[in-house]
């Protein structure tokens, strides 16, 4: 069903060699003399062809295309979105730190209030409990007293 490949020895393969075709001799006219300023003389190049002929001529400068503004590898929109995301994350981090600071400050104020209540309560307790054993202030000795017409006579 399939054709068998035919194998050739290297000597049986066809080899084709191409040789340049020489141009017919043309009438050579001398080139007109053009005054050229020194320093602007173009470079002369000579090429030896395979058949031995030498071709001499001026080197042609390839015209350079106008430089095109280089496009950035990443679009400006993508850069702006990325920078916006970084700024948003920085703000979120700052807000997280701010809320942590506010929570810590609230806990500190709560501890100060609790400490003041304990100290003030202890002072009040000392004042109340020590008043029963202390006999200071004005001492009043009550003897037989007479009340006449709602007046005290001592």
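^ structure tokens above, recovered residues below v
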């Amino acid at each position: 069903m399939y054709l068998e490949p035919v194998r050739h020895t290297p000597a049986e393969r066809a080899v084709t060699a191409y040789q340049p075709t020489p141009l017919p001799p043309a009438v050579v006219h001398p080139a007109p003399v053009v005054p050229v300023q020194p320093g602007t003389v173009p470079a002369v190049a000579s090429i030896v062809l395979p058949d031995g002929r030498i071709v001499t001529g001026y080197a042609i400068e390839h015209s350079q295309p106008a430089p095109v503004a280089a496009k950035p590898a990443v679009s400006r929109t993508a850069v702006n979105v990325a920078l916006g995301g970084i700024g948003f994350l920085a703000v979120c981090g700052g807000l997280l730190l701010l809320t942590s600071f506010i929570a810590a400050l609230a806990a500190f104020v709560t501890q100060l209030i609790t400490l003041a209540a304990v100290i003030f309560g202890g002072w009040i307790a000392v004042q109340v409990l020590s008043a029963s054993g202390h006999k200071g202030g004005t001492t009043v000795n009550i003897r037989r007293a007479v009340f006449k017409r709602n007046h005290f006579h001592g």
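The helical segments are 76-130.
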